[in-house]
Amino acid sequence: MNRGLFSVLNERQKFANFLRFCSKSLLLDQGMQVHGALVKMGFGFDLMLSNDLIVMYGKCGRLGVACDVFDRMLERNVVSWTALMCGHIQNGNPLESLLLFSKMALSGVKPNDFTFSTNLKACGLLNGLYIGRQVHDTCVKTGFDTVNVVGNSIIDMYSKCGRINEAASMFEVLPVRNLISWNAMIAGYTVAGFCKKALVLFRKMQEGEEFLDEFTFTSTLKACSDLGAIKEGNQIHAFLITGGFLYSVNTAIACALIDLYVKCGELFMARRVFSHIEEKHVISWTALILGYAQEGNLEESMDLFRQLRESSIQVDGFILSSMMGVFADFALVQQGKQMHAFAIKVPFGVDISKLKKEAGCSWVEIAKEIHFFYGGDDMHPLTEKIHEILKEMERRMKEELGYVYRVKYALHDVEEESKMENLRVHSEKLAIGLALVCGGLEEERKVIRVFKNLRVCGDCHEFIKGLSKILKIAFVVRDANRFHRFEDGLCSCGDYW
């Protein structure tokens, strides 16, 4: 080989290695310096290096620069397109990934297994079942559905979209199942509320001597937690000890154990697990503190919070906002004010502007279009009809079931009548109202699906249970914790979420 050519290729590979290291270590400044150097060396339009630049900028949160690199490329291959799609998802914009996927199809570049996997993930994040099915169909036609990484992504997509039976069907036909396949299905069953099936699958993994990792244990322990299955949880805890899994140094597993014991009322065991953690992280503190708070033991929760403040561990914005969220759920204004006062005085540099509780948002798909609602939202063109039908449903539920508002979930310092009005315009109720206005009462399918970014409140939970009974309609609601299936006045969570 010509020595000059060898030298050029060697320099090119060095740049690639530098960029990949910067991507892995999130070294934006160094990556930008490498970018400048490779342009000076005449590699500005090199296909491989441009792909590496897109990956680096995407991972470092500079998606605009990644798009600029992509737009200036003289030639693009499947890696170029997929890298930018991944960047969009990593930066919280899965919809843009799907739009890019459509443009790629028009460009003539053929997708590979990672392209399909990436966009199936985007569909799951958007709860976009219709598009997800289209991507799945394309995978079947091209033979990629049998590729492990794609099959696993199909399982995950259907699980996130609330179609657990379709996820299970995909799991059953996978030619080869790896650890990710098992974990995706166990997590899917757990989130969907089929926790007994998750435990059955876990036992099959054990019987088949499959490798188990922290994700396997955390999902299975979550299933035990949701079921209140303390016996099975104890068995897993014992298995961890006898199997040599050091949960004392694994924050995720330790937190899952704490959550299990707190929710099963075994607070002594929760504290015992907590005490065995070698290096207590703010996450483990948060798990125990919120566990006590969510069980209604606010006095113990606040005492633990005081201990955390006195420790060497820095109180972060997450635990402060989480505590304020608990106080908001219980309409405990005084405690919330105390926490706000602490946030103002805290010397750790926490940005209190980020401590506002995230706004509740719910969405529902009607005729392939997604409609979003926030609490108190009156921007939808059918708002008046939505309020009318919700009032009618309340009237029927009062007459037939004796339904009454759970006003403790309303704003605290307002009149009783205003509290009821406040509860009526919770985002999940508005989304359900739209579904009813748009034919939900007449259609034979009798299933209405709603998604929410936060935990559904107690009043809305009771309201939807009652609605399912009087209308003979099944409601599937995905909140921040799990899927709830409301049918004939009951919820799959057993009122435990």
UniProtKB/TrEMBL annotation:
PANTHER family: OS03G0644200 PROTEIN (PTHR24015:SF739), OS07G0578800 PROTEIN-RELATED (PTHR24015)
GO biological process, one term: RNA modification
Highest taxon in the source lineage: Eukaryota
GO molecular function: RNA binding; zinc ion binding
Domain DYW: 402-497
Pfam families per the UniProt record, alphabetical: DYW_deaminase (PF14432), PPR (PF01535), PPR_2 (PF13041)
Keyword terms of this UniProt record: Repeat
Protein name, entry field: DYW domain-containing protein
Organism: Salix udensis
Family to which this protein belongs: Belongs to the PPR family. PCMP-H subfamily.
InterPro entries: DYW_dom, PPR_At4g14850-like_plant, PPR_rpt, TPR-like_helical_dom_sf
Segments annotated as PPR repeats: 77-111, 178-208, 281-315
